[in-house]
Design a protein that fits this description.
By secondary structure, the chain is of the alpha+beta class. It has helices spanning 2-12, 14-24, 33-70, 85-132, 150-156, 165-175, 179-189, 191-198, 245-259, 269-281, 299-306, 308-325, 350-363, 392-408; strands at residues 135-140, 145-148, 205-212, 218-226, 236-243, 289-296, 331-334, 339-344, 366-369, 372-375, 378-385, 413-416, 424-427. A hairpin with a 7-residue loop joins strand 12 (413-416) and strand 13. The longest helix has 48 residues, at 85-132. The chain is rod-shaped, with a radius of gyration of 48 Å.
């Protein structure tokens, strides 16, 4: 390419030498000053034409292309004659540059359209949430900053004096959330936990149900949705809170009803076992407790004599008395036809506990059947945690063994399961007939 340009310049001097040859007769006669003027003029004109074609015109076209690019025309391109080596290189470099710029601008334009669409979608989403939620907020987790919603939160919680997301969550957990839910509230909604959760591609939303610390604790649901995957702009979230108190309390009521025995109002067999297992594995692990089993002596005779309806009435009356004998924190359930099981939590001295067992036996003595008081009796057996067992099954079997010992010893009494496996009988009182 460069050789071609040099050749063009050299060839441009050919007319000059041809005129000289004509003027000098092939250089045989001397050249006068006047004779030098015509070839010189011709050469200057040729060089001017050549300069215009190889320098001025491509430079003008190049500047024109640059100005188009400056004005925002990223499709601007520059081309020149292949014989112009220097401008051909400039043309290639400029066109490559503009091709790259055009590509980047298209990408930026597409990203801007996408961002605008996302922003519009966010506004629509936020507006919809504000109509159905008590509070919403937007936050940049990467920079620990609240972007929207702080004013409404500050009105709901006047103690808030921060624009930092994590500080706000901690302050609400400590000052407004029910103590039983406070730790779980902060652990779930903390900045650290959300950053870790949203790093996983399968997690798009984090939810939590909790109670606020009000005179009558109310249930709320908090949901946090990831708006983007982080990157240069940071990980952004939108969170919203709904009042679910009515629904939650209804669910709790339904759940409690499902745990209760329909006849006596005590816990049913499954709920009794589940609750005792959970207590022994958790808060009650290091305490001393007792499992008490009791049933009505000769219950079949009541059904045969008075009918099943009166038998059910007797069970309901005994259950009511048992509820009155034990604390609300104890777990009392009906685990068989006429069998009752009670977990007495954190028993004190053994004499006080024996007095309680005697009261259990005496509670069976009087029921009203067909509007008439009748005296019946009940047998009782007890086993201790952890002395006689550390699991529900072990304690159930040993309390049942003690109950059987009371039955075999004449009924109307209570027995304690001994550490060596031999129950110790204790007299609970003498049963009588109709009174």
């Amino acid at each position: 390419m460069k050789e071609k340009s040099i050749c063009v310049v050299i060839v441009s001097f050919a007319p000059f030498f041809l005129v000289l040859l004509a003027e000098t007769g092939n250089f045989r006669t001397p050249l006068s000053l006047g004779g030098l003027i015509p070839p010189t003029v011709i050469q200057i004109l040729l060089l001017a034409v050549l300069w215009h074609r190889m320098v001025r015109r491509p430079a003008k076209e190049f500047l024109k292309a640059i100005n188009r690019a400056i004005d925002g025309d990223f499709c601007a391109r520059f081309s020149c004659d292949d014989g112009n080596a220097t401008f051909k290189k400039l043309s290639g470099a400029f066109n490559a540059l503009m091709g790259s710029v055009e590509k980047r601008m298209k990408e930026l334009s597409e990203n801007r359209l996408l961002q605008n669409q996302l922003y519009e979608n966010e506004k629509i989403y936020r507006s919809a949430l504000e109509l159905s939620c008590e509070r919403i907020l937007e936050a940049d987790l990467s920079h620990n900053r609240i972007a929207y919603g702080l004013a409404k939160y500050s009105r709901a919680f006047p103690f808030l004096h921060t624009e930092m997301y994590d500080s706000m969550i901690r302050s609400i957990a400590e000052n407004a959330v029910h103590p039983d839910d406070s730790s779980r509230f902060y652990q779930t909604l903390s900045r650290e936990n959300l950053l870790e959760a949203f790093r996983r591609p399968d997690v798009k939303e984090v939810t939590l149900e909790y109670r606020l610390k009000t005179p009558e604790p109310a249930w709320y649901s908090a949901s946090v949705v990831c708006l983007n995957s982080g990157g240069r702009d940071g990980l952004k979230i939108i969170g919203y809170v709904k009042n679910i108190d009515a629904r939650k309390k209804q669910e709790i009521a339904i759940y409690k009803r499902s745990q209760k025995d329909g006849l006596t109002g005590l816990y049913n067999k499954t709920a009794t076992q589940t609750m005792i297992e959970a207590f022994l594995a958790g808060k009650g692990r290091n305490g001393r407790h007792a499992v008490v089993m009791a049933d009505i002596d000769n219950f079949k005779n009541i059904n045969d004599t008075f009918g099943h309806a009166q038998g059910d009435l007797a069970l309901a009356q005994v259950a009511q008395k048992l509820r009155g004998l034990f604390r609300s924190s104890d777990i009392a359930g009906r685990v068989g036809g006429d069998e009752f099981l009670i977990l007495v939590k954190n028993i004190g001295s053994e004499p006080a506990f024996l007095k309680k067992l005697k009261a259990v036996g005496e509670s069976f003595h009087t029921v009203r059947l067909k509007e008439t008081p009748y005296r019946i009796s009940g047998s009782v057996g007890a086993a201790f945690y952890p002395d006689d067992g550390t699991t529900y099954d072990a304690l159930y079997k040993r309390a049942d063994c003690a109950l059987y010992h009371s039955k075999a010893g004449g009924k109307d009494r209570f027995s304690l399961y001994g550490g060596g496996g031999t129950p110790r009988p204790e007299r609970a009182g003498q049963a009588a007939g109709p009174g």
